[in-house]
Amino acid sequence: MLLGLIGPLVAGLREQSVSVSLRMAAAVGAGVPLVFGVIAAFPAPRSGASDGISPAEAHALIERDFSWWLARQAPEPGAITLAPPELTAALIYHGGLRGLGSPYRENEGGFRFSVRLAGASTPDEGEALARTRNVRYVIIPSWDSFLDQYARLGANQTEHSIIALLHRWLPPRWLRPVPYVVPRVEGLVDASIAVFEVVDVQDNATALGRLAEYFIETGRMPQAVRLAGVLREQFPAELSALIARAQVAWVRRDAGEFREIMDELTRLIEEGGSEGLAWDRRVSLALALASARQHELARVEAQRCFDEMEPSLPRTLTERNLQQYLALLTTLGLEISDPELRKTVDALLPRESEAP
After folding, report:
1. DSSP 106-134
2. Is residue 32 part of a domain?
3. pLDDT tens figures, 271-311
């Protein structure tokens, strides 16, 4: 605006009747706003400005990645989840999953059921509620405590609720932990998402063995070591417990402990003690035998798993065990030829890896 008025203003000030003082006042009056206008149009760069993303943006990126991961991990499309409302919305939008406690006011029934399930005071009550609504996953992100609020609303004693048990890593036997590794995001550390899948009730040794493998996969070695000690004390001759202990010893590079466990495992296998093992536990057994260079025994167990494999079974393996099992099959000259099974296996592998 000032630039447009400068021409007429200058012309008017050149008249003989205009005094010098008036000319100076007009020049100052027009010049000062003009200078500030130029400064405003071209602001100086801010020193120390950060180009990083905010924690909220980082969490949104993680939620998108997790939604995609869980959608391919789930055994059926549209699996039902119990998660905080914001994460539930991301799971619905990005993963095509379904959720109980969505952030929409119209979903009063889902909210009430979420409160009941999160606040269930006994494992049996929690299992009955979960199976009533076909819930597949219970999900606890480290940065969102909304499930704790559900539990406070639904439990007389919050410390006995299902959510409190999961925070203490004491999942009931109808929940199996599923390892998800949070992608690295700049400026965000210690973020994690605990995922628990509703499964058939497990025996104690199998449930604790799977939990030990979960701790290994997610880098929680102190917890894995403590759990291995519990397995040794409570289930010294249980095959599933020995398999988990062998994996912990192998990752710790404790050669003496590993050798002692493998001697006991070999004895039990030769006595027929491997009958009745769940498929994922047999895969872990084959990997332990291969690590111990028990090649013939490893071949027998790996071949049996290969013969029994169907699309639903690779989903029960951790990513680490799936990658190692596929590598073992390649070493043994075994190749998955079924197109549907091959597609399922490829989808379960980490994005940065390639099937051998």
Report:
1. T-HHHHHHHHHHHT-SSHHHHHHHHHHTT
2. no
3. 887 788 999 999 999 999 999 999 999 999 999 999 999 98
